[in-house]
Write a structure and sequence with these properties.
33% of the residues lie in helices and 23% in strands. It has 2 domains: 250 residues, Aminopeptidase; 123 residues, Alpha-Beta Plaits, CATH 3.30.70. The radius of gyration is 24 Å and the shape is elongated. It has 9 helices and 16 strands. Helix 3 runs parallel beside helix 9. By secondary structure, the protein is of the alpha/beta class.
């Protein structure tokens, strides 16, 4: 079947600059218009400040378990990137569609909305759920409010999160803890440095602990299904000090743990907390107000599905693909599985290698494969 309708919808979706820091109400408003025209019922779940919204739509008999399609409406920024075309205008060239979000993941949203229109004209024996979220790109934040308010009387039997996997079936991804280490020393003139306590030196001790932990994890158990087959520990930013001739009072590190499903991230965090407590005790023998603290700024669970589950078998039938893989980046799938108990896989059009880059694109054949899968899904769900 032609791709005229999903391309038309994608063109409109790309035109909304729905960067995570901005409101997504414009793009959600457009989604609402399409659903209203198709006679599809939906519910909005707004952010606490009302600037953003999740959307949950249902097509078919609500009293039965069905299938959920899930995607996020936000995209990453374009500032500082050398685009050769307007990132918020879809450009077609050589079998590719260029624009911010084409791969991650408005291509899938366009397919979702197209299949929603088609499903609204069918008699479905089981319901099709559509979930559109906000703020996925900043740590799977917005979908939590949707999950908290999800009607639990009849849950979907399975979920497909359409992140770009090149239409591969993905059954596992890593979890993540993002945290901040705050090191507090005692400032003084640098000519008398030994009389103070250098917060950057405290931070260096914690960085050494993080690097030692990473070395241990890399040498330990491995899950070869992942491209990076072990849990990773990474320091992303460091801020400390005010001038070269002042012993710094404060240094702040931001770090993350991305864990394979077989590793318990809390036990790793506990080890780091233990080291922070040791350094704090040592520091406070000289300066009672000094020390090291660790605060979690965000976290989301990994995903680990059985390769023999019904949802994996369903995707295999629909795509004709054999086997299932694992990915190193995170998705909202782990939250659907952990918080609601919905069996979930990741499968969507586009290549993650194109995401977040200038001149992001999705290949037309990827959209065609996605539409074939979703149309097959609706055929299976038809009464």
């Amino acid at each position: 079947m032609p791709l005229q309708r999903p391309l038309s919808i994608l063109d409109r979706l790309i035109a909304f600059p729905s960067v995570s820091r901005e409101s997504n109400l414009d793009i959600v408003g457009y989604i609402q218009e399409l659903l209203v025209e198709a006679g599809i019922e939906f519910t909005l779940v707004h952010s606490e400040d009302g600037r953003k919204a999740n959307l949950h739509a249902v097509i078919g008999p609500r009293e039965k378990p069905g299938v959920m399609l899930s995607g996020h409406t936000d995209v990453v920024p374009v500032e500082g990137q050398a685009w050769t075309s307007d990132p918020f205008r879809m450009v077609q060239s050589d079998g590719r569609l260029f624009g911010r979000g084409t791969a991650d993941m408005k291509g899938f949203l366009a397919c979702m909305l197209t299949i929603a229109e088609e499903a609204s004209q069918r008699a479905l024996a089981r319901p099709l759920h559509l979930a559109f979220s906000y703020d996925e790109e900043v740590g799977c934040v917005g979908v939590r409010r949707l999950i908290d308010r999800w009607p639990t009387d009849v849950l979907p039997a399975m979920c497909i999160v359409g992140e770009p996997t090149s239409m591969r079936t993905i059954i596992a991804h890593k979890g993540k803890i993002a945290a901040r280490i705050t090191c507090t020393g005692h400032e003084c003139h640098s000519s008398h440095a030994p009389e103070g306590l250098n917060a950057i030196h405290l931070a260096a001790e914690m960085i050494g602990t993080l690097r030692a932990l990473q070395d241990e994890l890399a040498a330990g158990g491995r899950d070869e299904g992942f491209e990076i087959p072990f849990t990773t520990v990474h320091v992303g930013t460091i801020q400390g000090g005010t001038a070269l001739n002042i012993v710094p009072k404060t240094c702040v590190l931001n770090f993350e743990i991305r864990n394979v499903p077989g590793d318990d991230p809390q036990s790793l965090l506990d080890r780091l907390l233990g080291r922070a407590e040791e350094l704090t005790r040592e520091a406070q023998t000289r300066f009672p107000d000094s020390g090291v603290t660790i605060d979690i700024t965000n976290s989301y669970p990994g995903l680990d599905m059985d390769a023999g589950s019904d949802v994996v078998a369903l995707i295999g039938r629909l795509t004709g693909a054999n086997g299932a893989g694992k990915i190193d980046f995170g998705t909202e799938g782990g939250l659907f599985k952990e918080r609601l108990g919905i069996p979930t896989v990741i499968c969507g059009p586009g290549d993650i290698q194109q995401a977040h880059k200038p001149d992001e694109f999705i290949a037309l054949d990827q959209l065609a494969q996605c539409m074939k899968m979703l149309r097959g899904l609706i055929d299976e769900m038809a009464a």
